[in-house]
Amino acid sequence: MAARLSAGRVRTLLYAVGLVPAAATFAMGVANRLGADPVNVFERTLGLWAIRFLILSLCVTPLRELAGINLLRYRRALGLLAFWYALFHVTAYVGLDQGFDGAVLLADITRRPFVILGMVAFLIVSVLAATSNAWSIRRLGRRWGAVHRMVYLAGLCAAVHFILSFKVLRVEPLLYAVVMAVLLLYRLLPGAVRRRRLAQR
Amino acid sequence: VPPGLLRPAPARAAPLTARSGGQSTEGLTPTPFQDVTHYNNFYEFGLEKTDPAERSGGFHPRPWTVRVDGLVAHPRTYDIDALLARPLQERLYRMRCVEAWSMVIPWIGFPLAELLKEVEPLGSAKYVAFESVVRPSEMPGQSGVLPVLDWPYVEGLRLDEALHPLTILAVGLYGQTLPNQNGAPIRLVVPWKYGFKGAKSVVRIRLTDSRPPTSWNLRAPDEYGFYANVNPEVDHPRWSQATERPIGVRGGFFGAARKPTLPFNGYGEQVAALYAGMNLRRDF
């Protein structure tokens, strides 16, 4: 069954399924079913999914190198989903939560490391999303890879931002940070170790 | 089965009668009962807002005593039933959480000053320390994986803050005894301070001559001060305190815009004099 689906169809499906949490949470918010503090829940849910898709996009390379599973053709979709969720998350924060209050937003973005880390991650994934098209890949040439390695910094910032979003250390953001750390540290392994599996195939 | 071998069942809400104390804040619409009792920070029961309501069913708020001692002439142990039998007042107060959300709660209780005057603080008493209960078997949050706070939860006030007529010990809300998740059977309410100052399930009140340690201040001194007066001018390091999200407002998703946070949570007229001459940025 899966074999008969073209890569293009799987990608379309991925976008459709990937956006379900956003749509569902939004619908619940409109129906006033997100509890006592709906805007906060909405904002957090969107941020969480941004991190989840960022992690999934970072899994593509190790899966290919260690397990021989090639999902490269879906990596851009996963990265773009991370960007869309980050954009929704920031929009919810700026609009729904802070009501476009310029003074508060400026203070947040210039003074608070918690917000600055989130913003750095958002700016990076925005640049990556904007340069994820074929034209940019051609245009940037060899520099494209260097630009897109900024995703590692985005992952680091996002993981710390998530930890700081709670008053105390909590298990969930720490687990995400551990997964993120493993995925980033993997990139530091010598090429020979990483590509052994590829060479065997 | 001999009755003594059975633990009393968790207290069910019992109706409480209270007169209007004349100290209620005029013109406020109370936050719905459902939200007041199901959106709580009470880390003894877990970190999620829904945990206290879901995980406090096994907590026994009876029998209960509150010990009042330290630098007083007549240390006393109060039984909760005797405290409930006092003349009680209803106090509709604003409640501002340090996390930038807020509620309006119809508390039932009595001024802390009543109790303090009965035990007669000595001239050397300058502060009042509050201690919450430690019962890991009934409070699952007290035995979590990660260190959250050191138990017991401790809080403190300056003696003049504790004697202020707005400071109450609450034993109920919405016309009934305090639900477990709201700090049964007795808790502190100081409406011009961030909610975390309001120690829940209090077992001991001690008068001291030096400033007592307080739980959140011990945890992160740069984020949570001893005074913790609601102050829109002094931000939490991670978020602004200039505005707040009112909880449980109809149409909360698009409808409940943030509203400005008031200095001293709107109680400045009554309490600002307590802090005359102080630098409230430094003593936050």
UniProtKB/TrEMBL annotation, chain A:
<dbReference type="GO" id="GO:0009055">
    <property type="term" value="F:electron transfer activity"/>
</dbReference>
<keyword id="KW-0813">Transport</keyword>
<dbReference type="Pfam" id="PF01794">
    <property type="entry name" value="Ferric_reduct"/>
</dbReference>
<feature type="domain" description="Ferric oxidoreductase">
    <location>
        <begin position="46"/>
        <end position="156"/>
    </location>
</feature>
<comment type="function">
    <text>Part of the MsrPQ system that repairs oxidized periplasmic proteins containing methionine sulfoxide residues (Met-O), using respiratory chain electrons. Thus protects these proteins from oxidative-stress damage caused by reactive species of oxygen and chlorine generated by the host defense mechanisms. MsrPQ is essential for the maintenance of envelope integrity under bleach stress, rescuing a wide series of structurally unrelated periplasmic proteins from methionine oxidation.</text>
</comment>
<keyword id="KW-0812">Transmembrane</keyword>
<feature type="transmembrane region" description="Helical">
    <location>
        <begin position="12"/>
        <end position="34"/>
    </location>
</feature>
<dbReference type="GO" id="GO:0020037">
    <property type="term" value="F:heme binding"/>
</dbReference>
<feature type="transmembrane region" description="Helical">
    <location>
        <begin position="46"/>
        <end position="66"/>
    </location>
</feature>
<comment type="subunit">
    <text>Heterodimer of a catalytic subunit (MsrP) and a heme-binding subunit (MsrQ).</text>
</comment>
<keyword id="KW-0472">Membrane</keyword>
<comment type="similarity">
    <text>Belongs to the MsrQ family.</text>
</comment>
<keyword id="KW-0285">Flavoprotein</keyword>
<feature type="transmembrane region" description="Helical">
    <location>
        <begin position="78"/>
        <end position="96"/>
    </location>
</feature>
<feature type="transmembrane region" description="Helical">
    <location>
        <begin position="174"/>
        <end position="193"/>
    </location>
</feature>
<keyword id="KW-1003">Cell membrane</keyword>
<dbReference type="GO" id="GO:0046872">
    <property type="term" value="F:metal ion binding"/>
</dbReference>
<keyword id="KW-1133">Transmembrane helix</keyword>
<dbReference type="GO" id="GO:0005886">
    <property type="term" value="C:plasma membrane"/>
</dbReference>
<keyword id="KW-0479">Metal-binding</keyword>
<feature type="transmembrane region" description="Helical">
    <location>
        <begin position="149"/>
        <end position="168"/>
    </location>
</feature>
<feature type="transmembrane region" description="Helical">
    <location>
        <begin position="116"/>
        <end position="137"/>
    </location>
</feature>
<keyword id="KW-0408">Iron</keyword>
<keyword id="KW-0288">FMN</keyword>
<dbReference type="GO" id="GO:0030091">
    <property type="term" value="P:protein repair"/>
</dbReference>
<protein>
    <recommendedName>
        <fullName>Protein-methionine-sulfoxide reductase heme-binding subunit MsrQ</fullName>
    </recommendedName>
</protein>
<keyword id="KW-0349">Heme</keyword>
<dbReference type="GO" id="GO:0016679">
    <property type="term" value="F:oxidoreductase activity, acting on diphenols and related substances as donors"/>
</dbReference>
<dbReference type="InterPro" id="IPR013130">
    <property type="entry name" value="Fe3_Rdtase_TM_dom"/>
</dbReference>
<keyword id="KW-0249">Electron transport</keyword>
<dbReference type="InterPro" id="IPR022837">
    <property type="entry name" value="MsrQ-like"/>
</dbReference>
<dbReference type="GO" id="GO:0010181">
    <property type="term" value="F:FMN binding"/>
</dbReference>
